[in-house]
Amino acid sequence: MTQDELKQAVAQAAADYVAENAPQGCIVGVGTGSTANFFIDALARQKDRYRGAVASSEATRKRLESHGIAVFDLNEVSDIPVYVDGADEVDAGLNMIKGGGGALTREKIVAAVARTFVCIADGSKQVAVMGKFPLPVEVIPMARAHVARQLEKLGGRPQLRTGFITDNGNEILDVHGLQIADPKALEAEINQIVGVVTNGLFALRPADVLLLGTAEGVRRSG
Ligand code: 5RP
User: Fold this and answer.
1) Residue whose CA is closest, atom 8 of ligand 1?
2) Pick from 49, 97, 136, 192: CA 20 to 30 A from residue 20's CA?
3) Tell me, what's the pLDDT at 16?
């Protein structure tokens, strides 16, 4: 199976999970990226079950709307039974690195509201220890150099993602070379640096369920 076929398989499994576990008429949280895009396409086939969605990025909002799915502002929504999103890396504790697509802050906000976070990923994203994928950190532009110096003190090599501005008008530093032995502690420590909006570690609020696409089929954990 190709990587896209694995992504499509987990996206369909996630749509089935939502249909089985979320009440009819609810609002579904929807992530960002190529795997999340396949989920949107699968969700669209059952869109009459749902009132609509909350989007974790402008790109996701546009794709949902192109399928005729109503998109709600998060401030109008108090309950999101399920949030479905991809990941760049996921470990055995369902901690993740996210933000390869630059939507980490809105993703983390939607995940904070959601009751259940379903991570959908192809098998290449599963790792024993996270950190090979450079950790995205969203920064207020005027703080970029200060934040980069602090990240170097933590042992990382930050690189500005050139030509990229987030949906929130900020910049991304991709941090290479971090040893992520304690994801929760590192997530909290980086978020304490003044000028950081948030970082792409999702360990303080990890996924609840992982649907992993493998050649042998979709494996579920959690
Ligand atoms: C976007 C993300 C994505 O979930 C992550 O980058 C995975 O993307 P893809 O499904 O395209 O591999 O965090 O900010």
Assistant:
1) 33
2) 97
3) 98
